[in-house]
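Single Protein Entry

Contents — chain, fold
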Amino acid sequence: MRKRRKEFNSILAIIKPLFAEMNRAVFLDRDGVLIEERNYLHRVEDAAFLPGVAAALKRLSDAGFKLFIVSNQSGVGRGYFTLADVERVNEHLCRELARAGVRFEKIYIAPEAPGQPSLGRKPSPQFLFDARDEFGVDLAQSFMIGDKLIDLECGWNGGVKKSILVRTGYGAKLERKSPEPLKLAVMVDDLNGAADWILKNLQPPT
């Protein structure tokens, strides 16, 4: 009996820290959520933050959430612009948000066009699984924020606690035209509203 108890305690000592180190995260679509929706945006000078984005992200970060961008950029696969163009825009966003004390752990990009083979293109949850494995994210205590149904589905497919639709970008149009698929989602006006909802419903980490 003592030997079994000792073996159990040894196993528990290994497993317990793994669970203790799990992190909560917020996964965000980019265009229409963080910045104004522009058709196939690819130039830094066309990137404009939506109101209150930096403050909302800072509140989430201060609450202990790791932040990730998960973005489909099919313009690359369609030949409209290059992956380097996407990276320049993302670098600009990161520099600007860093002024407010906001940092993204990682930016995941799916450059493929619809119909092209892709592991990460939303609604695939692959990038959420990658973040789980690389950063120790507890998906069941994390959130997905987007303005399209594929964003919400990405979160649902990844097992997040809640997928949140913002009415910026394409969100308001989606809410009007396709209310039925949104029954499982939370709907808010913008990223500030999403941060408000998350922090209001925040539970202590297990």
